[in-house]
């Protein structure tokens, strides 16, 4: 499951011009619907234009909608984004609802080409307190210590050894000397 | 007439005859050879294409996209360049129509807009970076109002197809002028406050993700730190070696700490003692200015609501320069 054989580029999620940080700017600049006035395959597009197009244009005033009737050609839509990218989609034999869905898909995209997201978050500051280095959390006393040192030469956080534990257990089980009765 | 060819295709299952792919491959190969010979593929302005844009509709969409209301005449003036007006007059006089065109160009608007952008950026920087010396504020301001930054902003709000200019592909200067003129047009149409929010939302947000300590560093951090501590009445900074490793090797590292009257201020690391000392002084200054790597995140957009009045107040009030910097005179930012 390596990435080498995939034609799909991969990357981290990003947005053009820090969109959304200040204000949200819809990235779809213009959309061109090309269709045939007669042919059956354009029926869905024609129905969409007659019924839902005005509402779409009203809800997306930042997008210019162009209609281009072309005879004897299959219908398609071409979306142009603010960063210069263009997306082509053939709408042949689409229903009205399908066109509505694909159009809303185009609206909500930025122009960045489809890619496999490696992670759904990204940060420029992965470490706030600073990346660990071997000097982090080291006692400053090592600078002026003479080695071998009583404390610093020994391993840190060393619990009692098995031998020590056995000695402790033995000591607890010892019967203490009874108090000598006074004569 | 030129035809647009889309690059990104949402692909579907498609059974084409056997000969289609090899034919298209050969055509592409020949086209690539021609393009290489001509030094790159030919590019055309959007107006040469069959489906040329309806300029009125594009202007309408532009103002709606940004969520701003423009006075249409001012906006059109802001997008018209002097070179375009000259070219049109020349073209008309060539034909024989000797009419003096009454179209205005955007030179004055661009100058006004540039001043506004500069002012609003300075206001934001001084309100957010209250403890920072004026030299760093100027460095950040110069970055935000640089040609490259404003060009990127201009391109990504769709000015490329709207500008009326004679040069194609449009130069950076043209984009920058158009953006400045648009800001001035917005100030004229909707008021200075809307223009301020516009600049904060589009120009200043390019500061996000930027390491501001890459933009400017004091030339003599040790001297500056000594001066500041003296002015504050604290003891002289004392530099002590804290840690070191790999002394005689290529990967030597020295950690030097800055102390003032035996109080630890900051530490810095470097390949040699001098570098480490300078880095420690820089870190100490960063702590004083609140620009460490762990500093608070910058506010943008809606988060600026509470400090807008402070921003307006500080637009014309520069911060303390480094030569006069002292902690008592600066306040910590609340945002």
TrEMBL record, chain A:
Family matches, as InterPro entries: Ribosomal_mL43, Ribosomal_mL43/mS25/NADH_DH, Thioredoxin-like_sf
UniProt keyword annotation of Mitochondrion present: yes
Ribonucleoprotein found in the keyword field: yes
Family as reported in the entry's similarity comment: Belongs to the mitochondrion-specific ribosomal protein mL43 family.
Designated name of the protein: Large ribosomal subunit protein mL43
Recorded superkingdom: Eukaryota
Biological process (GO), any one: mitochondrial translation
Originating species: Daphnia pulex
TrEMBL record, chain B:
UniProt record similarity statement: Belongs to the ribonuclease III family. Mitochondrion-specific ribosomal protein mL44 subfamily.
SMART domains, per database record: DSRM, RIBOc
Name of the featured protein: Large ribosomal subunit protein mL44
RNase III domain residues: 46-191
Keywords: Mitochondrion, Ribonucleoprotein, Ribosomal protein, RNA-binding, Transit peptide
GO biological process, one term: RNA processing
Keyword RNA-binding: yes
PANTHER family recorded: LARGE RIBOSOMAL SUBUNIT PROTEIN ML44, RIBONUCLEASE III
Location (main, coarse): mitochondrion
Localization, UniProt: Mitochondrion
GO MF entry, a single one: double-stranded RNA binding
SUPFAM superfamilies recorded: dsRNA-binding domain-like (SSF54768), RNase III domain-like (SSF69065)
Originating organism: Daphnia pulex (Water flea)
GO cellular component labels: mitochondrion; ribonucleoprotein complex; ribosome
PROSITE patterns listed in its UniProt record: DS_RBD, RNASE_3_2
Domain called DRBM: residue spans: 220-290
Keyword Isomerase among record annotations: no
